[in-house]
Amino acid sequence: MPLYLPHxxxxxxxxxxLESYALTQPEVFTGTAGSVVERSNASDFRFFAHQFYDGGxxxxxxxxxxxxxxxxADAAAAALRERIRELKELVxxxxxxxxxxWSMLDSKTYATLASLHNHGVFAxxxxxxxxxxxGVLLNRLGVRAAAYATxxxxxxxxxxxxFEAPPxxxxxxxxxxxxxxxxxxxxxKRSQAATSFKQRGRSLFHVDLLVPSRDESxxxxxxxxxxxxxxxxxxxxxxxxxxxxxxxxxxxxxCAVRVPTxxxxxIHKLVVSRLRAGQGAKASKDVRQASVLCGVLAxxxxxxxxxxxxxxxxxxxxxxxxxxxxxxxxxxxDHPRAWEELGGDAA
Length: 347
Prior knowledge:
The protein is α+β, with helices and mostly antiparallel strands.
């Protein structure tokens, strides 16, 4: 089986058009587009409300404006109806891309990322990592590859997030605006602050907050601007040095997220694969994701892999060299150009 398959030019063009739309949206729906309805209370006060399904699949109704018939309220209702109309026109295109193998988020993941987008986390420098970022990168490169199911969302920041104004809500409250009830996951020690947040109940769906570690340890680090704590990860600073905005897609809609560059993501995956002691499945997944991206990049953006390797911190190079042996069977025969850019021959 090939590592990846390219999408058609027509679908790639459609994706680009959708991404252009997504990157200009200041605010997105965290669930379905829904509809504007008119309501009245016991005092016969008529008002507008927004009815929709949230990320958890629950039907919601939020007050929009009133009284109905007033200029300001009618304008608010008209503006929301226009946003709903625009999104509903795009949904068939999103559905088409999903059927054709483009990477799509599930409803809970999309609602969570959409909420963080609305709070300006990605615009301020927050970065989506993990398999969800991998899916976004595959879409940007116009290819399809084996999908990896995950209930993890990894959000990282390298330096203090540059919000235009200090956020009033903390990270846990931002997550809750998705319509999903999140709770803090206690640390291994009672005195250790939580760095992970999960959906209440038996669900495994959770969000991890990450920052760079100064060495190969995993410290708990305060993130004051989010009123939260994060786990430090080795060599994460290297990954976060280069990032860009891209589009995350779901059947409900699309929104802008920040992701690392594909070449740094790939090299970091190789390094991290050697740090996952006793986690053979995750290490294998890391190597395969890295190999897929390297295979695509060598053809689409020659030189990108080589440049990323040259920027790798010296103390990470031993892990990178060891990881090349596991990537060799995936790249040497069918993707020799990628293998050369990784320095495989020299290794």
